[in-house]
Design brief:
187 residues, AhpD-like
């Protein structure tokens, strides 16, 4: 079966159906490999179905079970986002109302329009989430970026940049070249 990232022509398009050992994803995003289920996973990290799709380590605090302090944050989340539900990340954070409130206030402020537009901020969040292997955040912020207009082509290009940046960072970190004086801030 041809991978979604395999853009080479198949047998019906004048190409061959043979694939080399390294998938296009592996070339585009070093550290990724083909998983047995046909998807992709990070080399050395559990396959995606073993990641955050399982049971939370703490209870999910539903709105009807929440304290007034937590309900106030939930209400602000729903009002700010124009939604009528609370997603699971907030429900687990509600186990510590101070952390819930602090993180919500911080993300609300940082992700608001500013020098960077909201779509760019979501794409940066996706890049960091992918690099940190945060399945939940990658899905959540990809959905948010798509609502803000991100296309599949933009997502694919973003992941290619993430992959090459991770590879470059690892090479440079390992080889330790001195920083060129031209790159140093002036003044």
């Amino acid at each position: 079966m041809r991978g979604i990232l395999d853009r080479r022509p198949g047998p019906d398009q004048g190409g061959c159906d043979q694939k080399d050992e390294r998938s296009d994803m592996a070339r585009a995003a070093p550290g990724w490999r083909r998983a047995r289920d046909g998807g992709y996973d990070r080399a050395g990290i559990a396959n995606r179905e073993k990641m955050m799709t399982g049971k939370a380590l703490v209870p999910l605090i539903e709105y009807e079970d929440a304290s007034p302090e937590v309900r106030a944050v939930y209400d602000d989340i729903m009002k700010t986002r124009g939604i009528d539900w609370i997603n699971n990340v907030w429900k687990v954070l509600a186990n510590d109302p101070a952390v819930l409130k602090r993180f919500w206030e911080n993300i609300k402020q940082v992700m608001a329009p500013g020098a960077l537009d909201p779509l760019t901020k979501e794409m940066v969040y996706i890049a960091v989430s992918a690099t940190n292997s945060c399945e939940y955040c990658t899905y959540s912020h990809t959905a948010s970026a798509r609502k803000k207009g991100m296309t599949d082509a933009q997502l694919m290009e973003l992941m290619a940049v993430v992959g090459v940046a991770n590879e470059g960072n690892r090479l440079v970190s390992g080889l330790r070249p001195p920083v060129d004086p031209q790159f140093m801030p002036k003044g």
